[in-house]
Amino acid sequence: MKYRRLGKTDLKVSVVGVGTWQFGGDWGKDFKQSEVDAILDKAQDVGINLIDTAECYGPHHLSESFIGDYLSRHNREDWVIASKFGHHWEEEWSHAWKVDDVNKQLDDSLKALQTDYIDLYQFHSGADEDFDNDDLWTMLDKEMQAGKIRNLGISIGSNQNIYQTKQATDRNASAIQVVYNRLQQEPEDEVFPSCLEQDLGVLARVPLASGFLSGKYHPGVKFEDKVRSRRDQEEIDIQLKMVEQIKAREVPEGVDMAKWALAWCLKHDAVSCVIPGCKSPEQVEMNAAAADLDIVSDDHPSTWK
């Protein structure tokens, strides 16, 4: 495993992390605690130290609760925990951007995660009008001073949201999370240059394009999970045809396409860590192997072996 500094923070993060949206049940599988334990055990075995989650990944902080149960039986200091705020899911899913709501979300997340602090607490895909709330950021700064939050981040909802990205330093945020993969390269235009200028860490989410870049699917496939089944079938088929062309033209013979797709993201100087989801220890091990591909350079400005 290789490690990179997360922007201007003192966090040293594995270049491959564990995304945990799937623990909430939206990706076609309901997890048991034993299955989450096996995934996180394998992650630690292969050198992964970053877990990315959110308060709305499953009802009642479900994903965070799985992680918290695991952390309660392991060394908290071994892990970099990144979570998010701004949405709420109990009986139904809703936005929650008021200062008091976010303050409660923070306390509820800490309780679910069974920890005293969150390493990276991220504004979660909110509108610019929600972002432009000085009282919110003042409250978050106070919670940093209180030790509940170690660092702030911004998970931008649009790949081209340069408005929020440019204000990161002024908001005391040290990292940006954005969708970035071989099919979605928009962050390279404005977001990444701004991140490099401000020395912001970058977490690349959806690095496998919702599984499209795994190489497992072909045009005509019908998805049944809650996330991909909502997408237009024509759009799915167009993207999967693009994936077939990418595999034929760009992926070296004998190289697993999923590993290649993760390594492709990591070759950009702005990217600190990719956070693919995973449903099994075997997928964790496969994801981690991307760090060893030749296109993941040791010369990245913030890489340690």
From TrEMBL:
GO molecular function list: oxidoreductase activity
CDD domains in the record: AKR_AKR11C1
Taxonomic superkingdom: Bacteria
Domain NADP-dependent oxidoreductase: 16-300
PANTHER family listed in its UniProt record: D-THREO-ALDOSE 1-DEHYDROGENASE, NADP-DEPENDENT OXIDOREDUCTASE DOMAIN-CONTAINING PROTEIN
This protein's name: Aryl-alcohol dehydrogenase-like predicted oxidoreductase
Organism: Saliterribacillus persicus
